[in-house]
Amino acid sequence: MKLFAVILIAALVAGSALPARAADDTKVKAATEQVQAGGRKIGDGQVGPGFEQMFKGVGNTIVEGAKYSGYTIKDFFSRVFGS
Predict the structure, then answer these.
(1) Cβ distance 76 to 27 under 8 Å?
(2) pLDDT, tens digit (0-9, with 9 covering 90-100), for 18-47
(3) Cα–chain-centroid distance for residue 71?
(4) 20 to 30 A from 45, CA-CA: which of 18, 61, 75, 83?
(5) Could you give the 3-state DSSP secondary structure of residue 53?
C-alpha cells in the first residue's frame, strides 16, 4: 500500500511539472464527423468506401477520445492539487 502511495505521489509531481494544456475536443468532433460521413456514403449506395471511412472514423474517435479524456483528467488534477 505504501508503494502505491509513493507511485501515485511521484506521478502527480511529474504530471504537475508539465505545462497544463487545455482540453480541446475539435479532433474528437472531426473524427465523429468522419463516422457520420461514412454512414451517409453507405446510405447513398457507396457501401465499400462508406464502411472504410466509417471504421477509420471509429478508430480515430477512440484514439482522440482517449487523448481528450487524458487531458481533461490531467486538467482536473492540476486544478485540485495545484500546478
Answers:
(1) no
(2) 444 556 789 999 999 999 999 999 999 999
(3) 8
(4) 61
(5) helix
Cell 464502411 sits on residue: 51
Is 50 exceeded by the pLDDT of residue 17?
no
End-to-end CA distance of the chain: 25
Give me the residue label for grid cell 502527480. Answer: 12
The burial class, CB within 10 Å (0-12 / 13-18 / 19+), for 38 is buried
C-alpha cell at 19: 505545462
Which residue, among 65, 64, 36, 39, has the nearest Cα to 50 in the 3D structure? 39
